[in-house]
Amino acid sequence: MQLKTILNRVQKFKCFIYESVRLTDHADGMRLEARLRPRSNSLAMCSVCRKPAPGYDMLPVRRFEFVPVWGIKVFFVYRPRRVDCRDCGVKVEHMPWVKGKSHRTVAYEWFLARWAKRLSWKEVAEAFCTSWESVFRSVEMAVTWGRTHQDLFGIQAIGVDEIKWQRGHNYLTLVYQIDEHSKRLLWVGEKRTVKTLLRFFQWFGTERSHALRYACTDMWRPYLKVIAKKASQAIHILDRFHIMAHINKAIDEVRAQEARELKTQGYEPVLTKSRWLLLKRPENLTEQQESKLSELLHYNLRSIRSYLLKEEFQFFWAYQSPYWAGKFMDKWCTKTMRSKIEPMKKVAKMLRRHRTLLLNWFKAKGQMSSGVVEGFNTNIIS
């Protein structure tokens, strides 16, 4: 089977034919060049309005990179025509294998974009002997196409979170759909400011924003402010993932500080290698970790008291009624404030400030969680 036959099977164009295919040598290796020409008596189409128009002149020969075969680069070779369109003026003709002024065919860009879902962009560029820029532009094309053809009907629950990227304090704001029937990334914006999230709601539209029933976020103030303004009718949820993350952070801070104090004062370093004992859930501990934790619980240390407060707070999520959950939280916060453990006291103060939003978790009956958002974020970072 000739290469022209294969090309006609996989990439056939209505008003163009493959004139010839030849193998050539170049500095970067061998190339397959497929030369195209217009069909006889076919009119060129304006690239703007896509209407047939009379010819105006010819441009120099251009090469468009296609999907490689057997590790050999493949190029379409074509001399574009310019047309004298009645509505648009003199324009380059529409070439169905390429978009705009790109030197990559649409098929090749989709090929690179699909591989970029499996490998890093650098690995894709190296595997197919192209540039990182080409992979980036291909992914950008795929994302743009997806955004244009995105179905935004029926979205009732969104999750908002941020991830750190590059060096320094650089963040991206990510908005996900977290409905039970559909979980996907909707939007990405630079930084994590009020203006960033406002841009999402501007893109999302007023009607869709007012149709939202649930919104999950962390306690980042700009996010809280924008959700309250743009989706005030939605039940705004601060779920257990973020709350427990703050409590674990406080415990880790207490443990590190107390371990240093024990070492300085010459006491037995009982907190050495105990970090994950205090942070993991009891059911996730190994037998060895369970044994060591049971020994630690005999010590009257701030770290142990913080751990016990954390485990006590887990009962908060078992309540069904927002009223009784609120009663429990108030009692826990009072107890924590009297513990004289500063990092834990900061957590208690934070919970009191966001009491209403925390109790929304029970109004949503625990159905909405940003845990899925964190899962998506992990995939993006990796």
From TrEMBL:
Protein name: Mobile element protein
Domain Transposase IS204/IS1001/IS1096/IS1165 DDE: residue ranges: 158-380
Signal peptide: none
InterPro entries xref list: Transpos_ISL3 (IPR047951), Transposase_DDE (IPR002560)
Species assigned in the record: hydrothermal vent metagenome
Pfam families membership: DDE_Tnp_ISL3
